[in-house]
Predict the structure.
Amino acid sequence: MGKIGAFLEQKRITPSERDPLERIRDFNEFRIPMSEEHIRLQASRCMDCGIPFCHSGVLLGGMTAGCPLHNLIPEFNDLIYKGIWKEAYKRLIATNNFPEFTGRVCPAPCEGSCTAGLNWESVTIKNNELYIIEKAFSLGFVEKKVVKRTGKRVAVIGSGPSGLACADTLNAFGHEVSVFERADRVGGLLMYGIPNMKLDKSIVMRRISLMEEEGVKFFTNKEIGVDISLKSLLSEFDSIVLCCGATNPRDIKVPGRELSGIYFAVDFLKSNTKSLLDKDDSHLISAKDKNVVIIGGGDTGTDCVATAIRQGCKDVIQIEILPEPPKVRLQNNPWPEWPRVLKVDYGQEERIALFGKDPRIYLTTVTSFEPKEDKKSVGWVNTIKVKWERDEKGNFIPKQIKGSEERLRADMVLVAMGFLGPEDKVIRELSIEQDHRSNVKAQFGSFKTNVERVFAAGDMRRGQSLVVWAIAEGRGAARSVNEYLNNI
């Protein structure tokens, strides 16, 4: 373990962040890396406990507890404390293809299940992980893998975290891997779903360039089912892995939805990132000088708050149908479950700094949209308060409270209500079976679909989830494909 008793001596310290009023002037990453000295002290707090829940990767209370990748957390924390960086890096990549991504954007369920967090504060696992991989890049430990080729060919459809993890793992097995991406850049969610201030795109391209050097082939602007048929790929490749994500956004069906100025959050975020990368604002969905209302209180909603502020919005409000979380764990949310407590994320911090108040309005739902004078574009959002009650079946449902109606000014509305499942162009072509939630039906462990030689992984198989789950799924599907190819 690290230093005996360090969790009692050392307080948990996380990286500093750039001042909110400074960072909103650009789209650069806002976290300030810690010094090696401080990182080693933080790693010393790891207790190397007898039963480390931090790498359990299970669902408790409907939420992830511990790391789905089963990262060897006590081991790499001990190596950090001792300053043995190359070995720490080896331990880290033994289970995680892309710690530079998870170290930036994962919500760290490992920390929620850290034993130190039972009575004290959890170890800074996520930041320790990020420091290892960035240290490894700076010291030249991250080298091109040289593999012996098997002659087997695999097509991976989609280049998000699951597709990249699957491709990287299959390539390490020696198979020839081709990744097909319908967007103009590789990365999927990592490229266009997560804004630069959380994950700079140079970090994504650094990894893509390394994978290309190792032999992975990437094809952009290629939509399977439109530009290329799945059947033609089946005739060309020994196996196919579907990693297309859960990209069918949940919409809101209320009067006025047809008005202009109402966008899905993912389209808004993509347009902003693409504008930054292309240095071209011609197709930018801009919040400049607008009153923005965001429907949805999750991470994507937070990203929209931060992006709208950087674009120069007049104001931004975030509507959340759920109640405000408690400030401390409740008795019905015990360790090692993920702590369902109030979190003020970077977007909310920036809105507080700029406008003096948290943007979130809880226990509220939208009833309709009203147009401006032109009768074409959105101008107002009508809302009503709700309370959660059990129906006759015992399920909690939101019940509207009469007399609590409110009318909010809105020149732009962003719908950030999550995703319903995968799009079905590819699914229909080969009559691939789907489950009751419309996800591709492929059993965990085998990842096989009902169509011979076709596998599925990531959000397309399990539904909308965390980046760390996507990577775990991609790795698992790659192992299954490798086993299949070795037996044919």
The radius of gyration is 23 Å. The chain is about 35% helix and 15% strand.
